[in-house]
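Re-running the complex after MR caught last week's input typo. The corrected sequence lines follow. Everything else is unchanged.
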Amino acid sequence: MPSPSAAPVLKPIRDRDIGARTLAVVTDNTQQSPDAHGPHSAIPADLPTQYAPAEVEGKLYERWVEAGWFEADAKSGKPPYTIVIPPPNVTGSLHLGHAFQHTLMDALTRRKRMQGYEALWLPGMDHAGIATQNKVEQQLGEEGRSRQDLGREAFVDRVWQWKQEYGGRILGQMRRLGDGVDWSRERFTMDEGLSRAVQTVFKKMYDDGLIYRAERIINWCPRCLTAISDIEVEYQDDDGELVQLKYGDGEESVVVATTRAETMLGDTAIAVHPDDERYQHLIGKQIKLPLTDRTIPVVADSHVDPEFGTGQVKVTPAHDPNDFEIGRRHDLPMLTVMDERGVITAHGPFQGLDRFEARSAIVAALREQGRVLQEKRPYVHSVGHCSRCKTTIEPRLSMQWWVKVAPLAKKAGDAVRDGRTTIHPADMASRYFDWVDNMHDWTISRQLWWGHRIPVWYGPEGEVVCVGPDEQPPAGEGWHQDPDVLDTWFSSGLWPFSTLGWPNETPDLAKFYATDVLVTGYDIIFFWVARMMMFGTYVMDEPPFHTIALTGLVRDEHGKKMSKSFGNVVDPLDWMDAYGSDALRFTLASGANPGTDVPIGEDWVKASRNFANKIWNATRFALMNGATVEGALPDASEMAATDRWILSRLNTVLAEADGYYEDYQFAKLADALRHFAWDEVFDWYVELSKTTFARGGRAAEVSRRVLGEILDVTLRLLHPIVPFVTEELWTTLTGGESGESIVVAAWPQDSGFRDAAAEAEIATVQQAVTEVRRFRADQGLQPGQKVPADLALAGTPLVAHEEAVRQLLRLQPAGEGFQATASLPVAGATVSLDLSGAIDVEAERKRLTKDLAAAEKELAQTGAKLTNEAFLAKAPEHVVDRIRGRKAAAEADIARLTQQLDRLA
RNA sequence: GGGCGCAUAGCUCAGCGGUAGAGCGCCUGCCUUACAAGCAGGAUGUCACUGGUUCGAUCCCAGUUGUGCCCACCA
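Corrected-run output:
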């Protein structure tokens, strides 16, 4: 609520008891300026000339929430419109990427709400298993403690505490952004209901044979001490060392290459290609493995590429995924030589060494034996890193739970193929298909504490005895629950229906599933989008979204990725503080070309702030001049051409805007609205209206109503993108009838009114005014300088606008002693000016000459085209017509310019 | 190694077969009583390169170069 000391801002009129509804005014100011323009103009003297977002935003947001406008009703008869938020990780705070996507989602739901849909934007957060656990462990580390010190239960409690604190920060940021989410439906992936959904799906998949347990090579993070899935591994080029090692001696020796020499301790075979003639004699032989007392066989396996290196490969089944497969094929022993932290466990001199220490120690030892034949250093190769902590991944043999992906992915792919779900923009669909059509099985168990514990209980022999959620573990000793938790993406994959109450058949689920659109970045197609599609089609038998609208990533003003190491990360709060939430939102929307990255810089936010301020001041002007939305719009027959023109344009823009909204073309939308509002309404229409208002009478009355209409509709069109400033102004403009708010105002509709004649007429006025302005500027006339002029406008569209033209151009009537020293033909009329000898003949001649040259060039070009028979024969008629038109225009220009030049001489 | 995308004004990007556009920046002049967070006027581009298709190409096709991203079990 505003405090009395707050700077004056526009307030809703209902805060004051004002009789005249045609006027909306501010605050507690009682001073009124002289009535300059008639009975409607009672204006406080100190009306602020700048929009102050900080004064408005918090207050409005609280009002919206209190009014319950963002709360959806599952029982309403209105058609549903649903968006579930991509739940931000509780780990942190929202960045510009969130602000960007939230702006789009908010705009979509706000518009649909105004259109009469039961609009639900469901908020929530993701527990982000590994990420959050790492953060909390880090925090503990600073206290000199580890999670093991706390124990599982205490540690999980600690994470919940953390969630309370940081989750709140995220919610606060969403409020600042103006997110119109339904707070009564806020969800968290670790909530009881969502946990139950997780267990229920797990059970169903287990029963359907889609979840299984298997020992395989997985990506292991020796720092996080957990398995991670393929897509959680980030590959980057690292400098390493490729060494060629000689195993065995004499005839029966082989040379293998490796970048991970330490794994040789776990070698259990040498492999060569079965058809490799060089090595036929070796197949089946035993080779002495250096540094150990073991001998290993040479096996033939077609996986080996004879062209690569020596064509002889060391095989370490327990520490390399390919070798694991070879090992399986040849029934080799799986020898694990490292523990979960990457420390060597194999007996011998290297035991207890870290894997990297062991690597150099082993190479050194082999070198001493003369077994290192070649060393390439640096050897740049691609190495997997944990996406959470950047530690080098260690492939590790381990027992894990898996999801059998193929059947699920098939359904997920089909949903897009058969059109039940549309991917937007369409060319992003290929990325989606690439993934769902080639997905490997998914490791879902994680050796973490923070997350959904796997709902499986084992008996004393390690056998699975039951799978939750409804089965109780049997009584007796020796039963225990699986200690692992599920991959965080398992629960977020259920988000579109778990948040609506599934597995219960809730009214929410019936009303709001499937959701309408998913707005998210193309970077998580694999992590999240594909998985939601899999779970949705599998569990609900219906894909979770009708449309997947993919956004680009927010980048800095030079298109560079925002990252801490570049130091170019911006906290959205900083810009919101400085320029207002609307400014940030408008900027983000302006950059939103579907699927394309969005660069953003502070200057651009500033420019949007300027636009918000422009809207503010234009509305201020309108209010001062008595713009109103009271009563019906006057009949077109009563309107001046300016009124008909702007209403005609309004409807055109409205239709355009609707198209852009429906097509997620926010950049084009923002551009169209800014252009219409700023250039056409705030500039031309307002300027032209000034004359009308000054003159008064019925014409002024009509214009006041039209101006009110234009603003009313324009504000509503803008509201989904810039909710705050539009709300503040709209409630003022409309008098805030019965507590109404633009949030629940009806979306404007195209009335169908168009007036091509008026549009043409105003175009002529604009052209004429611009032309004379240019002349004035060329002549060096001060903009404020009044110039006596004689306007011969008879027979032109300008005749009805003489007064406005004179005012816009600072032209005085030709009085006594008028002497035309310059006269220029504009739009079929002639404007004669008395410049009292001040005319700059040279400047004008230069300009005319330049224009003449351009016109002659145009004439030559069009003339050539029109005598080109091939062109005439093949070009479509409308194109030929256009060229003819251009030629005629060029001829007219030449005649006019020649005449003007003659007159100058 | 595969796949996809992009190269247009100083910057960031629209346009995608018929005379090159926007925002920001830049130059000039203005405190014109809604707004200097503003107003008026202005300048700026062999639309990466080379060929091809076409009456006509920034736009379609092929190749070249540069650049970005994604995928991959490169010992």
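None of the earlier attempt is carried over here. Chain A has a mean pLDDT of 87. The longest helix of chain A spans residues 666-695.
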